[in-house]
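Give me structure tokens for this 79-residue protein.
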Amino acid sequence: MNIIAHTLSDKGSVISNELEFANSNLPWLNKNRDNIRFIKATDDNKILIEDIAKMVDQSSKTKLWTQKFYRSKVSPILK
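Here you go.
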């Protein structure tokens, strides 16, 4: 992940979410903490598609998602 973060972090903003594993986000935060934006989860640990769509713009080049989210301990639920 460090190699990917160092290679891509200057190519555009990174979109992640607050449920993501910390070790997935740390390389991006260490490289350029101003370049990563986090999507807030709902109270029931869901990431809404509308919230993802609001974050995506011309500057967002990398989307950081794993198969399971840390806090919910289940596969992501997109509503």
